[in-house]
Amino acid sequence: MTTLTKTEDTPAPTGPEAFLSVRDLRVRFSTEDGVVKAVDGLSFDVERGKTLGIVGESGSGKSVTNLAVLGLHNPQSSSVTGEILLDGKNLIAASEKEMERIRGNRAAMIFQDPLTALSPYYTVGRQLAEPFRKHTGASRKEAKARAIEMLTKVGIPQPALRFDDYPHQFSGGMRQRAMIAMSLMCNPDLLIADEPTTALDVTVQAQILDLLKDLQQEFGSAIIFITHDLGVIANMADDLLVMYAGRAVERGTVREVLQQPKHPYTWGLLSSMPRLGGDINEALMPIPGSPPSLLNPPSGCPFHPRCAFTEKVDGERCSGERPLLAEGRAAACHLTPEQKRTIFIDDIKPRLG
């Protein structure tokens, strides 16, 4: 299992196998209305060759976290603090020149929308070959051969001919495959996939997911897979981090979190999904309310305004005391372990079937 943080506020020792270690990460954006606390004390580790899934609603901080890992935030309007250790090197303290050597080389990202991520002014082949030349010093001929090789690996038909095509000449699934090929050109140690299948139909989505798993086996990359789809993450990840309002609220192996969830927010996510084999007329159970404003997040547990179980906690702990995420398999919630077990067995599990 991926070794993760001891608490959200206290950095934990880096595990011996951790390749990426994020410690007490905080990302703030300055706006006209105030400071947005997009990520608020987040810690996790990822091992080589393993996949960490990060799930949560839109605005929970998933993408912001991973843009911070690659140093892609505008320093004029944002601040990033904490530690992001990539194989022991703190990326937050790295210069822009150092980050340029890391991006696309040791760490790469598959963006959610390849049509906007790929430049419309350059051929797909050129967009694959030029970063490879920059990082490796390869000749044009070598870079073209490598690009065609990677287009072949990701299943692009007639890759030597498609090398000279522009992004608009590719279908949505092919553009996503080209993005994956681009991210793998330099055999990165870390691959960040930011909802890479959101805009694809289910058939192409399955092909892309299988492709990522096959390529991970071949290259041994660590993967961070960001999604809001728990069905996708069940088939992709080894470990799972559930985020809400810029914080981690639950973590564990995929099997632990999806089969025995311990946080009311995770219960809500699972209960709002349609059941395989369930009644087609069965009503879904959405989480009540809306995600909080990160300009002025709630005190205490950020989920307490939407939680149906606050009355089971003594006093006003939910609204006044921030629950911490303990080491190992854990959920940041003031409910006792026995209460979590009872609620899950009596109220939640019957809904999940």
TrEMBL record:
GO terms for molecular function: ATP binding. PROSITE patterns: ABC_TRANSPORTER_1, ABC_TRANSPORTER_2. It is a peripheral membrane protein. The keyword Cell membrane applies. Gene3D superfamilies: P-loop containing nucleotide triphosphate hydrolases (3.40.50.300). InterPro entries: AAA+_ATPase (IPR003593), ABC_Ni/Peptide_Import (IPR050388), ABC_transporter-like_ATP-bd (IPR003439), ABC_transporter-like_CS (IPR017871), Oligopep_ABC_C (IPR013563), P-loop_NTPase (IPR027417). It holds the Pfam family oligo_HPY. It is found in: Cell membrane. SMART domains: AAA. Keywords: ATP-binding, Cell membrane, Membrane, Nucleotide-binding, Transport. Its main location: membrane. Residues 22-270 form the ABC transporter domain. PANTHER family: DIPEPTIDE TRANSPORT ATP-BINDING PROTEIN DPPD, OLIGOPEPTIDE TRANSPORT ATP-BINDING PROTEIN APPD. Belongs to the ABC transporter superfamily. This is ABC transporter ATP-binding protein. It comes from Streptomyces mutomycini.
